[in-house]
Amino acid sequence: MDDLDRFITGIPKAELHLHIEGSLEPELMFELARRNKVAIPFASVEDVRAAYQFSNLQDFLDIYYAGAQVLQTKQDFHDLAAAYFARARADGVRHAEIFFDPQTHTDRGIPFDVVIEGLLSGMAAVEGVSSKLILSFLRHLNEEAAFATWRQAEKWLDRIAGVGLDSSELGHPPSKFARVFAAAGEAGLKRVAHAGEEGPPAYVHEALDILHIDRIDHGNRALEDPALVERLAQSGMTLTVCPLSNLKLCVVGDLADHPIDRMLDLGLNATVNSDDPAYFGGYVAENYRAVAHARNLGKAQIVQLARNSFTGSFLSEAEIATHLATIEEFARQN
Ligand SMILES: Nc1ncnc2[nH]cnc12
Ligand SMILES: [Zn+2]
């Protein structure tokens, strides 16, 4: 590890864009398949990894939803979350706001309560990393299905920080979910949405104007619209950018062309995150490292990205100030 790599791993950081189902490593997938007697279409862990070649978001989603089938019991969700938090802690993550996709599980008969109870217990099992949960609606399903999920979530709202919107973006604009996002806003939850990953800048406008989001997930294609960039910069909107995901899903052709430093130069509150690390080849520190090497980032930019990860979080002002102070101290000593 060179000096910058050590700096990247050590700097205190938050992860704001992580699908817990996307942290299911092939080894755990096999263990759960065996434990639950679920058939999976792979002969070995190597076979699974070899299948992770995607040419777009849908390619990936098909395999991601198939992998999630092995998750059945509260213990499975506990193990999944505990494994992620242990791995994140080793990457210098001090706080993580993680997505879960309840519909991926309830649609195959796993009760909502089993999912959330298992995740909450796994999140609590690892010391040294605080966490929040974001319930993400699947946008390829309809509004009625999102409302059914919302009703199942209502008794858990004190344990859910926000709602999100993920899955197949093209053809499923944010406006499709205006009413369920309004209900979440009325209940006092934060709102985030994947927008501008594959979808056009118009979807980012809709997420802002119709869903009233507090944070934007990805947002890459906002760069095509200078007025939108200006608006995002002026309003201090945080973008949860995922470099290795962007590479694996062909949002960028090469990491050397990744726009992370352009985003910072444009005054955007960009952050670096792992999205679905088991599928895209790296946890959060690897995302920082890969894009830092590809774009020649220096320590000042790494510090800026780490600061943005806390200022863009849903922690309190006091908690954010404490984390920023630890970053300053780390930067002074390193
Ligand atoms: N990168 C991504 N975009 C949309 N939906 C997702 N679900 C898991 N990862 C996703
Ligand atoms: Zn995502």
TrEMBL record:
Record's keyword terms, sorted: Hydrolase, Metal-binding, Nucleotide metabolism, Zinc
The answer on whether this UniProt entry bears the keyword Acyltransferase reads no
Tell me the SUPFAM superfamilies matching this sequence. Answer: Metallo-dependent hydrolases
**Top enzyme class of this protein?**
hydrolase
Binding site residues for Zn(2+)? 17, 19, 194, 275
User: Which residues are responsible for catalysis?
Assistant: 197 (proton donor)
The note on the cofactor says: Binds 1 zinc ion per subunit.
Q: Which residues form the Adenosine deaminase domain?
A: 12-321
Site (Important for catalytic activity): which residue positions?
A: 218
InterPro entries per the UniProt record, alphabetical? A_deaminase_dom, ADE, Ado/ade_deaminase, Metal_Hydrolase
Q: What are the annotated GO cellular component locations?
A: cytosol
Residues the record lists as binding substrate: 276
| This enzyme's EC code(s) | 3.5.4.2
Q: Which cofactor does it need?
A: Zn(2+)
- What biological-process terms (Gene Ontology) are attached? adenine catabolic process; hypoxanthine salvage; nucleotide metabolic process
Please provide, alphabetically and separated by semicolons, the GO molecular function terms listed in this UniProt record: adenine deaminase activity; zinc ion binding
Concerning its family, UniProt says: Belongs to the metallo-dependent hydrolases superfamily. Adenosine and AMP deaminases family. Adenine deaminase type 2 subfamily.
Protein name per Swiss-Prot or TrEMBL: Adenine deaminase
Source organism per entry reads: Novosphingobium sediminicola
Q: What is the phylogenetic placement of the source species in the record?
A: Bacteria, Pseudomonadati, Pseudomonadota, Alphaproteobacteria, Sphingomonadales
